[in-house]
Here is the input.
Amino acid sequence: MRIAERLLAEDYEIPAAYADARNVIFVGMGGSGAAGDIIRDLTDYQVRIPVDVRGRPDLPAFAGEDSLVVAVSYSGNTFETLSSLDEAMSRHCKIIGVTSGGRMKETLAKHQVPRIDLPAGYQPREAMPFMLFPMLKVFKQFGWCQEDVDVAGLDSTREGIEKLAEKIAPRLSGKLAVIYSEYRSVCHRFKSQINENAKAPAKYDVVTELFHNEVNSWNAMRNFHAILLRDSEERRDIHDVIEIAKRLLDGSNYTEVLVEGTNRSTRILYMVWLGDFVSYYLARQNGVDPEKVPAIDYIKNELSSLREKTKAKEADRAKVL
Here is the structure.
């Protein structure tokens, strides 16, 4: 949490005119994209302009001069984010780059685009705090949000989070983990951490949407364990529908976590942190290295090789012409 305190205390050199943006578009994939997801949930009840999160190599049709595009790529070589960055520049969007290096850092420097530099040497999912907290501070600098993250309060819960994670992990052993929360960013991060760190299957759905469709599949689902993450300050109507729906579940196949905290931001980050620890303990239990992601590395290497071959063919064709 000392990292969070330091990052939130800094002032970032972003043009003041960026505060006049009429919409915000986060672009990023995987662990880099998680920061945008979480910021959207942390701020959507405070920020009075639309905040979109894109996990694609292109921008929405509305992106333009009044848009602030936050391009996040830890490695700086994510092709989807690089493609979106090129498009943002061609559309004359306001841009902030968040990266540790690679082609993205070179492009940002060449075009003198404001950027937030990240420390190297981490997996993207590990570096999420370095991507998250600076952008939260930028939002605050712009006057878009006022709520502070209770860093000290969150830090005081660490021991309790770890103990709870150690209890939850064995319940997921050999089962499909199903994550439910009213916060999509929490669900997606929790699910992704289980996939990457524990190399285990997981899925998610969002409260209350799941009560309009997925609830009908519960009787047919086999060998799963659901984790129901609840905000202690959830709306009364959300509280009521969850309590009714719980009657349809077998008490042995779900774990309910009621999250306390001084404000919504702190409660959301508690849920995110819990997911990180659950995935770590599940990885240990499964006997796998949470750091390594061989399947992802394979895809990236094959894609890089394919691009090199394509470039070589294009070069040969140009010589002939």
